[in-house]
Amino acid sequence: MNLKNETLKILEENNKDFTYIKWAILFIDFGDSYTEIILKPNYTKESFDKFIKSLDFDYDDGFGGQEVFGKIMLVTDSWLERNEYDGSEWWEYKRVVNFETALYDLREETKWTRPFKEELE
To answer: 63 pLDDT exceeds 80?
Structure first.
């Protein structure tokens, strides 16, 4: 899997692109070596271009050990976070939510129809 293409795909699935990146901290574990990829807040165009170029490599996203760790914070109070299960890995899009949205999401996820305790008080 190409990390740059994978990152662009998850951004596009959420109506975003690379210009939405606020900062990023990544750790890449190649087994016998590792590297850090960091894009600091208030970055320059030069450091942003270098960051995007550094994402352009292939890694094994299948089962085995996780290779890519970290977060990419976006300007929209949302972020990309690495997740894995049994070594299979991917980006997951996360967003800050308010109480009402979290309550609605929880109801949808659990199919809970009765009032929660907080609503009874």
So the answer is: no
